């Protein structure tokens, strides 16, 4: 049995994270002064929320480092929740979901249960469209983002 070269695997993961960053960044914007998001969560840079203090002014380098770290965590969360093979587009859509709503949201979802049960993507990808609420409020931006995840999930 052939073994996978760890450098090739690491390069593949890095490329996947870079693609996920390209997908996620436009949805997040670039907040250079930490402020509450639409539902009151302190946020800075490109959707970073961990330990954010309102009014903090992160540098570009800090924002880049936070975003890469947050997307790495999203990748790890996706890997912990989804136990079946997915296409790169599906993985990116799932990573964006973890980035935006957290690993717990994905792991506890019907979407994850369906995917892990081996259902076809045509059955579980529409579940992305359910994730349009933040703190009980339906947000237009989340509706558009959910539709983009759904399209990416089915596309590749």
Question: What can you tell me about this protein's structure?
Answer:
The protein has seven helices and four strands; from the N terminus they run αββαααααββα. With 156 residues, it is mainly alpha-helical. The chain has a single domain, classed as Lysozyme (Orthogonal Bundle). Helix 1 crosses helix 3. The longest helix is centred in the first third of the chain and has 23 residues. The mean pLDDT is 93.
Number of domains: 1
Taking strands numbered 1, 2, ... along the chain, how are they ordered across the largest sheet?
1-2
Number of strands: 4
Distance between the termini: 28 Å
Q: Any guess at the CATH architecture?
A: Orthogonal Bundle
- Taking all Cα atoms into account, the compactness measure Rg is 16 Å
For this structure, the CATH topology is Lysozyme
In CATH, what is the class?
Mainly Alpha
Helix content percent band: 55-70%
Summarize the structure.
By secondary structure, this protein is mostly helical. 58% of the residues lie in helices and 9% in strands. The chain has helices at residues 6-28, 60-81, 88-101, 103-107, 110-116, 121-124, 140-155, and strands spanning 31-36, 42-45, 133-134, 137-138.
Supply the key terms.
mainly alpha; 7 helices; 58% helix; Lysozyme; two-stranded antiparallel ribbon; 156 residues
List the helices and strands and how they pair.
Elements (H helix, E strand, L loop, with lengths): L5 H23 L2 E6 L5 E4 L14 H22 L6 H14 L1 H5 L2 H7 L4 H4 L8 E2 L2 E2 L1 H16 L1
Antiparallel strand pairs: 1-2, 3-4
Helix pairs in contact: 1-2, 1-3, 2-3, 3-7
């Amino acid at each position: 049995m052939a073994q996978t070269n760890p450098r090739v695997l690491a390069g593949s993961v890095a490329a996947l994270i870079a693609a996920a960053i390209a997908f996620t960044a436009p949805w997040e914007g670039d907040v250079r002064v930490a402020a509450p998001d639409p539902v009151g969560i302190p946020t800075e840079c490109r959707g970073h929320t961990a330990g954010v203090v309102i009014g903090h002014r992160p540098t570009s380098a800090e924002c880049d480092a936070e975003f890469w770290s947050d997307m790495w965590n999203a990748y790890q969360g996706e890997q912990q929740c989804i136990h079946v093979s997915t296409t790169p587009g599906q993985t990116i859509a799932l990573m964006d979901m973890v980035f935006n709503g957290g690993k717990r949201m994905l792991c506890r979802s019907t979407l994850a249960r369906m995917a892990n049960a081996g259902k076809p993507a045509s059955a579980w990808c529409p579940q992305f469209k359910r994730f349009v609420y933040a703190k009980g409020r339906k947000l237009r931006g989340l509706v558009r983002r959910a539709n983009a995840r759904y399209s990416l999930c089915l596309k590749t």
